[in-house]
Amino acid sequence: MEFQKLLSIFTLVKIATFALCVPVFAQITQIPSNSSQSSCRATKVDTPIFKEPSTSSNAIRILSAQTRLTLAYIPVSGDRFVRIKSPSSGFIQTAALKFCQTNNNTQNLWTKPTIGSVCRQIVQTETLRRQPSLKGDYITTLYPNTRVFVNVVAGNVVKSYKSENYIWVEIDLSSSFPGELSGNGWIANTDLVNTPRLSSLAYCS
User: Fold this and answer.
1) Of 2, 74, 148, 204, whose CB count within 10 A is highest?
2) Which H, E and C letters describe 34-75, residue by residue?
3) For all residues of the chain together, what is the average pLDDT?
4) 130, 101, 89, 82: which is closest to 42 by C-alpha?
């Protein structure tokens, strides 16, 4: 109860601060080219996720500025709130969102290797799943430039698994998302049919 009270107070402060920073009519950020149908957004400022599409609704959590999230649908002009499905399900004010920056520089897994490092960067948007399968339980969506930590086996070899024409790589969730996720997850790192020489992961720079 005390935590919920503190969260409510913090949320009200954030809403008040945000209202002073955003023009009255700036509900939807100008749409850049080729982004109108993208479900990826990032927060401009620290902002709450609400249980219902109202600032008087309970706040589920506070997202820090520059946090990437996935929309449940594409909002239309005039929508003050939009439902999101990750990193948590709920509603967020559209005025607090901006379009994600895209990274068109597809990299190869073997570019600039860092020997002994388990740190990797996401090259293209991928789904993180609990099992190495397209039917595996959904955990979250990973966007370009997100840093994750892979699991390795004897000989410092990245732990992988071949399934459904993909090479899956196991991700250490505790190291990659401390305090948020635990255990292990998997991403489809290489498409053996369409792009067998490309990877969704690059070594951290």
Assistant:
1) 148
2) CCCCCCEEEECCCEEEECCCCCCCCEEEEECCCCEEEECCCC
3) 76
4) 101
Owner of token pair 């939807």: 28
- pLDDT score of 132 more than 90: yes
Going from the C-alpha of 110 to that of each of 19, 31, 115, 158, 176, the distances in angstroms are: 47, 35, 11, 13, 21
Three-state DSSP class for 179?
coil
Residue pLDDT, tens place only, 172-186 = 999 888 888 889 999
DSSP assignment, residue 152? Answer: E
Q: Which residues contact 122 (CB under 8 A, 6 or more apart)?
A: 142, 143, 144, 145, 146, 147, 148, 200, 201
Query: Among 24, 93, 107, 88, which Cα is nearest to 56's?
Result: 93
Mind listing the pLDDT tens digit for each residue in 52-61? 988 888 888 8
Q: What is the pLDDT of residues 64-90, one digit of tens each?
A: 888 888 888 888 877 888 999 888 889
The torsion defined by the Cα of 116, 119, 121 and 125, in degrees rounded to 10, comes to 120
b (16+ CB within 10 A) / e for 158-183: bebeeeeebbbbbbbbeebbeeebee
Cα-trace Rg, the chain: 19
Q: Please give the structure tokens belonging to residue 107.
A: 């990299």
